[in-house]
Write a structure and sequence with these properties.
With about 425 residues, this protein is of the alpha/beta class. It has two domains: about 5-65 and about 320-429, Alpha-Beta Complex (Aspartate Aminotransferase, domain 1), CATH 3.90.1150.10; about 75-320, Type I PLP-dependent aspartate aminotransferase-like (Major domain) (Aspartate Aminotransferase, domain 2, 3-Layer(aba) Sandwich). The chain has helices spanning about 5-15, 75-85, 95-105, 120-135, 175, 190-200, 225-235, 255-260, 285, 305-320, 325-345, 370-375, 380-390, 410-429; strands at about 40-45, 45-50, 55-60, 110-115, 140, 180-185, 200-205, 235-240, 265-270, 280, 350-355, 360, 395, 405. It binds 4'-deoxy-4'-aminopyridoxal-5'-phosphate.
Length: about 425
């Protein structure tokens, strides 16, 4: 095993001053048997280095944003230039117009946009605006989909809380949770049944068009079209949470890849190039409910700050190079083949879901179409697999159904290295 003494030591110190030693619970190793998480010191391309000097190939991508890996020069230059020009003005800037225009060109359903600071804020605000627009209170979502940590959406959430076995959070009044209705993904019948009961009170349905929070789960053919049709029949809006999915599989939203159009969209992660950001947008008649034009209030001291916007523009520009998504898909396909072959060779039953350079490996004997399927994956075996990979210098998210993300910084040599590691790890598993 790699020597991680300094990480262990820092974890002790961190626990003394930071609650749980981490600033986001999914960073703890609770779901993979506990112990000290790895404390990173430096990143470079597809690699990062921990405080003990060990090198890891990064498939975590900071839970999504780092589609260009660490220290991308174009993004770093943009951030440096923004920092040297003063990091914050509290006034509008031209850069915000440039970025909003780029996003609308890439995702045409964003007729009007507003920048915020996180995916949580983006989703939280789409809910407020949908309620303001419809005059209704109830919201529907799909089980296991994580939409940030605001009160209403932290019900049957996926990636963080449920992995840790906490389906709900304490501190959320029951009266708020009562306004959230949770439905299994890929189940139009359940959605229609819920609408028959609560449709007249429902403001919106929140949808990850390709699920990114219990692995990677595609919608069944016709599912998203059905969601749109049914929601609109009952006068409810359709909100896509593309915080993970936008620009991940395709230049634009998953909505553009799949040819479906929501009323509103929430964005985050990749569009900040590694700095904090969120954005939401959608139909003009809905977005005009937002202050200062309309009665739905939303604000932010840091919203649209020049550093995040400059990083975001640079990140999206870097995705415009010819062949970017083909390369991510090619590397994803190589890793998929290697994982499936190694698992079969050593007698492990697995399911793998992949879209382009993002995929999830489940230790499971059936396909994953919804959260119940993903939850049935063998967490104990995943934990052993995770630690074997880690000790060979391959880092993933410490969760049995979190996605692996390939970045544009990965090279064929990184993929070859990873495939060797995969073969050795399955032999030991
Ligand atoms: N929506 C989705 C789909 C997410 O994956 C996340 C974060 N994992 C969020 C919202 C919340 O974003 P943030 O962590 O930036 O608040």
């Amino acid at each position: 095993p790699l020597n991680r003494e300094t990480s262990k030591h820092l974890y002790e110190k961190a626990q003394d001053v930071i609650v749980g030693g981490v600033n986001s619970p999914s960073r703890s190793f609770k779901a993979v048997g506990g112990g000290a998480p790895v404390f990173m010191e430096r990143g470079e391309g597809a690699h990062f280095y921990d405080v003990d000097g060990n090198r890891y190939i990064d498939y975590l991508a900071a839970y999504g944003p780092l589609i260009h890996g660490h220290g991308n020069k174009h993004i770093a230059d943009a951030i440096t230039q923004a920092a040297q020009s003063g990091v914050l003005y509290g006034t509008p800037t031209k850069l915000e117009i440039d970025f909003a225009t780029m996003l609308r060109d890439a995702i045409p359903s964003l007729e009007k946009v507003r920048f915020v600071n996180s995916g949580t804020e983006a989703v939280m605000t789409t809910i407020r605006v949908a309620r303001a627009y419809t005059g209704r209170n109830k919201i529907m979502k799909f089980a296991g989909c994580y939409h940030g940590h605001s009160d209403l959406v932290l019900v049957a959430a996926g990636s963080g809380p449920s992995t840790l076995g906490i389906p709900d959070s304490a501190g959320i009044p029951q009266a708020i949770a009562n306004d959230m209705i949770t439905i299994p993904f890929n189940d139009l019948t359940a959605f229609e049944d819920a609408l028959k009961k609560w449709g007249a009170e429902t403001a919106a349905i929140l949808v990850e068009p390709i699920v990114g929070n219990f692995g990677i789960v595609r919608p069944d053919p016709g599912f998203l079209e059905g969601v749109n049709e049914l929601a609109h029949r009952y006068g409810a809006l359709v909100i896509y949470d593309e915080v993970i999915t936008a620009f991940r599989f395709h230049y634009g939203g998953a909505q553009d890849l799949l040819g479906v159009k929501p009323d509103m969209t929430a964005l985050g992660k990749i569009i900040g190039g590694g700095l904090p950001i969120g954005a939401y947008g959608g139909r003009i008649d809905i977005m005009e409910k937002v202050a200062p034009l309309g009665p739905a209030y939303q604000a932010g001291t840091m919203a649209g700050n020049p550093a995040s916007i400059a990083a975001g523009i640079a990140c999206i520009q870097e995705l415009q190079h010819e062949g970017t998504y083909e390369r991510l898909d090619n590397y994803g396909a190589q890793l998929e083949a290697a994982l499936l072959q190694a698992a079969a060779r050593h007698g492990h039953t697995v399911t793998l879901n992949r879209v382009g350079g993002a995929f999830a490996l489940y230790f499971l004997d059936h396909e994953v179409r919804n959260y119940d399927d993903a939850q049935a994956a063998d967490g104990e075996k995943f934990a052993r697999f995770f630690h074997l990979l880690l000790d060979e210098g391959v880092l993933l998210a410490p969760s049995k159904y979190e996605a692996w993300f390939v970045s544009t910084a990965h090279t064929q040599a990184d993929i070859d290295f990873t495939i060797d590691v995969i073969n050795r790890v399955f032999a030991q598993l």
